[in-house]
Amino acid sequence: MINVLLFEDNKNDVAQLKASLPKNEFEIVGISSNLKDGNQQIKQLDFDIAIIDIFMGDKPEGIEFANEINNSTKPKPFIFLTSSIEQHIFKNAKNTQPFNYLIKPFNKFELLFSIELAIEKYAEQQGAFAEKKTVFCNDCFFVKKNNSLIKITFDQIFYVTVDSQYCKMITESGNFILQISLTQILKDLPPEKFIKTHRNYVVNLNMVDSIYPNDNLLILKNKDKVLLSRRLQSDFFTKYRIFK
User: Fold this and answer.
1) Is the pLDDT assigned to residue 128 strictly greater than 50?
2) Which of 83, 108, 198, 222 could link 227 by a cystine bridge, Cβ 3.0 to 4.6 Å?
């Protein structure tokens, strides 16, 4: 699920968003209607994108809220969703570098597409790569499935293996076919958590349950068996403290 933070004071709009977002693989993790609560949520909540109304009552607090996101320790992409069409308000909002500026009443599909595009563009700006149907970020990746983006954190990955001309990623949320080489995937996964155990396998070290060096085999927490080649055993064991 992609985590969404809302800055919105209109109850009808909140109800509409609550009705449409969860049905399309988006989870609303926080809702605020004032700067004090909003700033707390920026610091405390794990969100992937924010949807921001500009006016809270008669005050354009949404612009300040957007600046707070930009100045936070972990900036995130955001979209303005507002009924404001004044040119000077738009210019002030534009200066915060939103990924879109949508006018109410909103079209559900336009909003969903805007969220997806915002996440992909943000990932590219952060130095992640977007190749065909997969986007890697700092601590997670997004994979397209049907008409939605599925968020997978690195901690959910069991292993990645070569599957014909593609790669298959085995995760707690299911299995995904990626149109990316195993070499490229290994470059974008954190090296302290992932290691190549065989020419066809990259493994999450935290998911290893049992090691059988003589059999060149690993048993993972999901009970899958993964090959551990003799050539790569020394590199693999440097990641563990082995007590004899």
Assistant:
1) no
2) 198
Same domain, 10 and 119: yes
* SS3 letters across 102-135: EECCCCHHHHHHHHHHHHHHHHHHCCCCEECCEE
Residues 85 and 164 grouped into a single domain: no
CATH number of the CATH domain containing 52: 3.40.50.2300
Query: Last residue of some domain: 125, 143, 173?
Result: 125
Domain span including residue 45: 2-125
d(CA 153, CA 136): 10
108/160 same-domain check: no
CA 127 distance to own-chain centroid: 14
How many structural domains does the chain have?
Answer: 2
Nearest to 114 by CA among 149, 83, 145, 84: 149
Angle at 79 between CA 77 and CA 81, to 5 degrees: 160
Q: Which of 129, 146, 232 is nearest to 180 (CA)?
A: 129
Half-sphere exposure of residue 35: CA atoms within 13 angstroms, side-chain side: 13
Are 78 and 116 part of one and the same domain? yes
118 near 99, Cβ under 8 Å?
yes
**What are the residues whose beta carbons fall under 8 Å from the beta carbon of 213, sequence distance 6 or more?**
228, 233
- The length of the chain in residues reads 244
State pTM to two decimals.
0.61
